[in-house]
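Let us work through a complete example step by step.
Step 1: write down the sequence.
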Amino acid sequence: MASSEAELREQVAGLYVDHYSWLTGWIRRKLGDASIASDLAQDAFVSIIHTGAVAGIREPRPFLATVARRLLSHYYRREALETSYLELLAELPQEHMPPPEVRLIALQTLSAIDRALDGLPAKVKEAFLLAHLLDLKYSEIAERLNVSSSSVKQYLLRANRQCVLTLLD
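Step 2: predict the structure and record it as tokens.
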């Protein structure tokens, strides 16, 4: 770990200068979009700054590629979420279409929920969504997930706790 804030800044600056172009190119080859690649590369360095892990990096490119893969995974998941929401909206009659500001708020909320549930097992996430989006009862969720109602209760406690903790951050 860096002995001072100035040393940490210097280490991050060195890492950035030496590897930003490479990382941006690596992400661009995966995505095919230079603008988004640039944003995700920036996000990778911001993530490193927030974790303070720069001093422990022995092999920068594999480390940066690992961080970038995680960010790409989040990016693809957000894209899929947005696409699903927009497809659902496209099925609505025009008179039931929410105004643009409501659509934006809904997308932001879905993204925040997705971030809050990140890292939880699939069944925990699914139980949360079934309970809160479809308003299903524990027994109905248990049947869909092929688990007990007490497991559903534990899943929901875990997911709800994760959401609350995310909000507090």
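Step 3: interpret the result. The chain is about 80% helix and 0% strand.
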